[in-house]
DNA sequence: GCTTCGCCAGGACGGTCGTCATAGTCAAGC
DNA sequence: GCTTGACTATGACGACCGTCCTGGCGAAGC
């Protein structure tokens, strides 16, 4: 049980703050305060500045979500159950942080559609990674390749749309609806 | 054909910039420059400051989308066709601005989940208004009340998720997928 | 003609931003 | 014990932020 390094704490705090308040609104000063990390070593660990921190934070978020997808499909043989479990986890996490959290990539992606190439690319890679992992599990469960690809995209649409709606509405209903809709699509 | 007032130009420019780059990243100075409106009269027209401008911009976005939904259902008797037309319009608009646009509310909603009560409320009202209008049209087309409510939520989930995915991916595929998925759900 | 008032021009104000430089600390290697 | 180099502390720097103020303009009302 090694304890997290300064760099790791900065990245995980950045991920949390970025998804909660966005990239632009999160300042280095507020970040180091929240992370309890030394302000002076920010540019030691991230010579590329805030942008490099942002890319690292998005990469961390990518991994975490990928892990959740894996767990969902390892625990449930029925794809619809896997999705329900996954979306339910996401809804619970969202509720736990009082509907201020959500997708670790969406907020940055919307802010930075124009502005930073590195961040835009990182967001693209995140979505792509999730789609690929999902497609793999769906094929493994017997779906034909083209269908698995289409379904993976449907799942992502429903997840992101559901997360956004839940956040605005301050309730978990949209994500539950999204999970049930995906279940219908999987069976259709 | 009266030409738009200074106030109106500020609001419509704000809507465009907010959805493109977010609320925090859009400054008054950049806004008046882009709108070609006088910088000195910003606080004359919006005594409540940037927040009041933000609320007005979201309200404008709410109306515009509501109008699009109405047009979609006036032109198409089949709900699935109405959705296809609507989502297609959204995808075309997104592509036209080089995938930097999207939903006029989503970006602000994600940034401001915490921070400004007025903006949060405005975003909630936007989503609620769209949902109500949609539910009305679906009922008009023969869907029973509870089912119409659920379907309206599904439509919003798919639209928002699709818009986000299209923006990240720089392509219109996810929105086309979303429209087809909604068509399946309408028929299921 | 004069006044009133909605609107515009331009800039001051205090604050915070990202960035970076400089000085200091401290444990590991010899 | 000394050196070295990775890490931390502190704050300066210029730029930009939202806000607000004062001064001026021009048309409508009397």
Question: What are its keywords?
Answer:
188 residues, Tetracycline Repressor, domain 2, mainly alpha, DNA-binding, 76% helix
Describe the structure.
Chain A has 188 residues and is mainly α. Chain A has a domain at 59-187: Tetracycline Repressor, domain 2. The first copy, chain A, has 9 helices and no strands. In chain A, helix 8 runs antiparallel to helix 9. The mean pLDDT of chain A is 93. The first copy, chain A, binds a DNA duplex (30 and 30 nucleotides) through helix 3.
Task: Assign the CATH topology of the domain at 59-187 in chain A.
Answer: Tetracycline Repressor, domain 2
Biggest interface, which chains?
A-B, 44 and 44 residues
CATH architecture of the domain at 59-187 in chain A: Orthogonal Bundle
How can the largest sheet of chain A be summarized? Answer: none
The beta-strand count of chain A equals 0
Distance between the termini of chain A: 47 Å
The number of helical segments of chain A is 9
Helix content of chain A: over 70%
Oligomer: homodimer
- The CATH top-level class label of the domain at 59-187 in chain A: Mainly Alpha
Report mean pLDDT of chain A, rounded to a whole number: 93
CATH superfamily annotation of the domain at 59-187 in chain A: Tetracycline Repressor, domain 2
Domain HTH tetR-type (chains A, B): 4-64
Pfam families (chains A, B): TetR_C_13_2 (PF21993), TetR_N (PF00440)
Organism (chains A, B): Amycolatopsis minnesotensis
DNA-binding region (chains A, B): 27-46
């Amino acid at each position: 049980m090694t304890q997290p390094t300064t760099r790791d704490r900065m990245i995980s705090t950045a991920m949390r703050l970025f998804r909660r308040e966005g990239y632009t609104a999160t300042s280095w000063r507020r970040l180091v305060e929240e992370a309890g990390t030394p302000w002076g070593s920010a540019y030691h660990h991230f010579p590329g500045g805030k942008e490099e921190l942002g890319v690292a934070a998005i990469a961390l978020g990518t991994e975490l979500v990928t892990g959740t997808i894996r767990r969902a499909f390892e625990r449930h043989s029925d794809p619809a159950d896997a999705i329900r479990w996954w979306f339910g986890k996401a809804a619970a996490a969202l509720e736990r942080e009082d509907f201020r959290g959500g997708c670790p990539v969406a907020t940055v992606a919307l802010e930075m559609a124009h502005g930073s190439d590195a961040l835009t690319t990182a967001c693209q890679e995140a979505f792509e990674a999730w789609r690929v992992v999902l497609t793999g599990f769906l094929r493994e469960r017997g779906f034909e390749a083209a269908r698995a690809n289409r379904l993976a995209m449907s799942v992502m649409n429903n997840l992101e749309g559901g997360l956004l709606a839940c956040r605005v509405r301050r309730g978990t209903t949209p994500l539950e609806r999204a999970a049930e809709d995906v279940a219908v699509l999987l069976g259709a």
